[in-house]
Amino acid sequence: MSPALTDLAYLIASVLFIVGLKGLSHPRTAVRGNFYGAVGMLIAMLATMFSVGLDFTWIVVGILAGTGVGIWFAVKTPMTGMPQMVALLNGFGGGSSLLVAGVEVTLNPQNELGLIATAASGLIGAVTFSGSLVAYAKLEELKIARDLRLPGQQVINGALLALCLALSAWLFTQPQMTILYWLIVVVALVLGYFLVISIGGADMPVVVSLLNSYSGMAAAATGFVLNNNVLIICGALVGASGIILTRVMCVAMNRSLANVLFGSGAGGGTSASKEEVDAVYASVKSTTSEEVAMLLDVASRVVIIPGYGMAVSQAQHAVSDLTEALLERKISVEFGIHPVAGRMPGHMNVLLAEADIAYEMLKDMDQINATMEQCDVAIVLGANDVVNPLARQATNSPIAGMPIIDVDKARTVIIIKRSLSPGFAGIPNPLFAAPNSLMLYGDGRQAVVEILNALQNG
Amino acid sequence: MKMLDTLPLLAEAVTSSAEAARLSPIALLTIFMLAIFVGVEVITKIPPTLHTPLMSGSNAISGITIIGAILAAGQGDSLFMKLLGSVAIAFAMINVVGGFLVTHRMLGMFIKKK
After folding, report:
1. Which chain A residue has its CA at the smallest distance from B42's CA?
2. Co-location of A195 and A319 in the same domain
3. Is there a single domain that holds both residue A196 and residue A320?
4. A321-347: average pLDDT
5. Could you say which of A203, A385, A406, A443 is catalytic?
6. In 3-state terms, what secondary structure has residue A88?
């Protein structure tokens, strides 16, 4: 197959990737878009395999092994485990990039740009690999990934990065000393570990998105090394996607990326003393599922605000049943989805979609806030920080300035929670003690089922 | 059938000027820059509802590194190099297959059942 035909195939693949991503802009075309991307990948792979006389055995072995593991991962993961799976898969991509650059620098003499790109590929690929593994462990809540904040953490990270750059410069002057490349990789692996281990679990979505962007950049760097169009184009697409999503999340939390990566994290700032917490919660009123059913029965507008708690208790199907019951009674139901509710952007959307809730009922924060005052009953299900009015004050609280869902503006607010324990930010929530708020203690799914039963029997 | 026969010839004619050409660094940079612009334009139009499938889908696309892995594995001279290339392919394939499947699973839930 001539190089020209290969390049044509790469062009077709690139077009398919771009059109595929475009398909992701609407649920109607999204499945098709994903399929186009997969076809593009297949075309690019086939074009490469037939482009030069390559030894097929090792290639096929690798493909079969990877396909098997990939299918196993994808099929075995529950929907709630998706964020960590994305992190893990991303890590493997980064690992591949660093190995490819290593093989290239050993086999082929590189020009200046090639050497720079090789070092970049190794550095970024390794940081992505170890960083993603740590992110996976944190999201899975494995003990070995407990937060580790060493004194002078950032100095250590800076030193490791400087070491990588120094080794890269050395490699630039002595390209035949390929051992230097592998040293860069080792140091970068350690750097990746330290960078992510100090970040709290609640901020992992931002980290996963950033690491996703890094793996794109690593692919682009490999593209510069191999003089390959499709690698560069895909690398740019993925790199851009990751950075944009990261920025969206940081803006939603009103924290800068630097603060997320290097700051004391969401758990920092002043945490409330017991007396302060007790004072806030002095006037908390609790309710029962029967009472909630009565409130719903006479309501005409209901808004549901889901949070991570809904995912934990797997309440989305119960919520769907309740929604149907409400819709049958001609009560309007909408869902308010905060940009950082749950473990990943759109996490709540995926769960609710799994429960067959029509995506037109899912409103984003600005849309739902606009009509909150006309809402009769707002149900907060497993969400905490995203509805905490303390965020409106410019104090030194960890969530100060973060845009929230103005649930307290609804006529009545029902908060379904197991207890008064704090959310990720570790601070009390005055919403619970507001005059129009009622606490319904219990497991999310159970509480919703009981409300539904009371509604249907009442 | 005649049309299909002429396609390879057409491709050859169109791209013959690029026959085995190594692109200059500037050309590569140009492509990179244009791709970034395209990426930004396409991604910013994707609604928050679909951000999780987007993260998963773009992750799958980052598995394009398998192209480099295939080239590397095929070129290996020593056993160690061939093995390294094979592992690189396996890793990239996990990323690709796992990524597209996971994205498909997520998106499947957005299809209206009624």
Report:
1. A22
2. no
3. no
4. 88
5. A385
6. helix
Q: Is A385 a catalytic residue?
A: yes
Rg for chain A, CA atoms, rounded:
25
Contact A23/B at CB under 8 A:
no
Residues A377 and A296 grouped into a single domain: yes
By the CB < 8 Å criterion, does A335 face chain B? no
Distance CA B91, CA B69 (A): 9
For residues A136 and A250, state if they share a domain.
Answer: yes
List, as ranges, residues 27-46 from A with C-beta within 8 Å of B: 27, 30-31, 33-35, 37-38, 41, 44-45
Does A190 fall in a domain? Answer: yes
Any CB–CB contact under 8 A between B13 and chain A?
no
Say if A6 falls within a structural domain: no
Average pLDDT over residues A73-93: 88
Shortest Cα distance from A155 to chain B (angstroms)? 31
| Closest CB to B36 among A101, A209, A240 | A240
Share of chain A above pLDDT 70, in %: 94
Q: In terms of Cα–Cα distance, which of B56, B79, B99 is closest to A61?
A: B79
Sequence-ordered list of residues with C-beta below 8 angstroms from that of A229, at least 6 positions apart, any chain: A7, A10, A11, A14, A223, B23, B31
Longest distance between any two alpha carbons in chain A, whole Å: 81
Q: Which B residues 25-64 touch A at CB under 8 Å? A: 25, 28, 31-33, 35-36, 38-40, 42-64
* Same-domain pairing of A256 and A326: no
String of DSSP letters for A30-56: HHHHHHHHHHHHHHHHHHHHTTS---H
Residue A23 has pLDDT above 80, yes or no: yes
User: What is the side-by-side strand order in the sheet with A437-441?
Assistant: A362-364, A332-337, A301-306, A377-381, A412-417, A437-441
Chain B interface includes A245 (CB < 8 A): yes
Specify the pLDDT at position A328: 93
Is the pLDDT assigned to residue A446 strictly greater than 60? yes
Residues A200 and A299 in one domain: no
Residue A417, in any domain of the structure: yes
Predicted confidence at residue A296, as pLDDT, reads 92
Task: Write down the mean pLDDT value for chain A.
Answer: 86
Q: Mutation test of the interface with chain A: which of B14, B22, B58, choosing the one with the most A Cβ atoms within 10 A?
A: B58
Name the residue range of residue A238's domain: 77-262
Total structural domains within chain A:
2
Nearest CA in chain A to B102: A74
**For A109-164, how does the pLDDT look when each residue is reduced to its tens digit (9 = 90+)?**
777 777 888 888 889 999 999 999 999 998 887 777 677 777 777 888 888 888 88
Same domain, yes or no: A449 and A392: yes
To which H or E segment does residue A402 belong?
none
Domain map (residue ranges) of chain B: 49-114
pLDDT digits (tens, 9 = 90+) for B29-67: 999 999 999 999 999 998 877 888 899 999 999 999 999
